[in-house]
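Consider the tokenized backbone below.
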């Protein structure tokens, strides 16, 4: 069983919680996990990967064991901790854009979070 964590917008589309469990036949790779995810949740087809090429969509990132594996070969094996369900395979919606931050803006926000 593979644990997959989805970003909020995909959880809404699939009507699921933070994490879903899927079964993968054979080697546990990005492609095999995404194939199984799309099989179990057909409404997610085309949201993470392009329909025609199966390439990762822009602004979507994959993490395994705290490491960004987005640029790894999609058929490379994922870490054993993901394959045996100890760690989740995380699909993250990247954040981009926004207004120019004011000097010190982020520092003040981080201090507030730490309180």
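A designed sequence for it:
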């Amino acid at each position: 069983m593979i644990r997959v964590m989805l970003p909020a917008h995909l959880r809404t589309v699939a009507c699921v919680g933070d994490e879903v469990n899927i079964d993968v036949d054979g080697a546990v790779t990005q492609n095999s996990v995404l194939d199984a995810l799309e099989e179990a949740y057909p409404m997610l087809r085309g949201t993470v990967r392009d329909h025609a090429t199966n390439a990762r969509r822009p602004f979507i990132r994959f993490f395994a064991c705290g490491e960004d594996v987005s640029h790894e070969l999609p058929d490379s094996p994922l870490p054993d901790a993901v394959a045996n369900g100890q760690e989740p395979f995380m699909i993250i919606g990247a954040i981009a854009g926004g207004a120019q931050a004011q000097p010190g803006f982020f520092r003040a926000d981080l201090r507030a979070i730490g309180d």
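The chain has one domain: 2-114.
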